[in-house]
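Hi Prof. W.,

I finally got the cytochrome-c oxidase prediction working! I wasn't sure whether to trim anything, so I left the full sequence exactly as given:
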Amino acid sequence: MVSVGVIIWLASELMFFAALFAAYFTVRSVTNAATDGELWRQGTSMLNVPFAVVNTAILVASSVTCQLGVFAAEKGDVKKLRMWYIITFIMGSVFIGGQVWEYAELWHEGLTLQSDVYGSLFYLATGFHGLHVTGGLIAFLFVLGRTYLARRFTHEQAVSAVAISYYWHFVDVVWIILWATIYIIK
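And this is what came out:
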């Protein structure tokens, strides 16, 4: 039931991100028509695409380590589950740190939440994604904490580990689409 609940909840999250994408593309088409695309050219010219590629690779790789943790959980190997989930947590934290660094750089260049509609949409979309990643990191801490507090590894803990992996993979897929939309499609 936990897995089904997580999948239903992720469907609602999908609608949330679909609304953000709809807003992004709608505003982009309207402002590009009004400014001959200049607003988006200015905004995207400030993005550090090579850095974003590395940061994205870190997040995508964290999905691999997360899945290795799931495989360990399914086998009842709590030590390997912990190891893979700690690595996943570290990689997710590095991704968030990279986002914070990128925000500071863009802020310094003048791209802020209030600077223009491009800045507003950039920070809203990537910021909400960052909040979702942070939520996933907190969930990893809870799952890891349960494995250390319990006397033995149970089926319920394995189900929790699998459920968090659904969320983590979802957040990664959303980022890949968001990253392509913001950093690649100019």
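The chain has one domain: 2-15+49-184. Does that look reasonable to you?

Thanks,
D.
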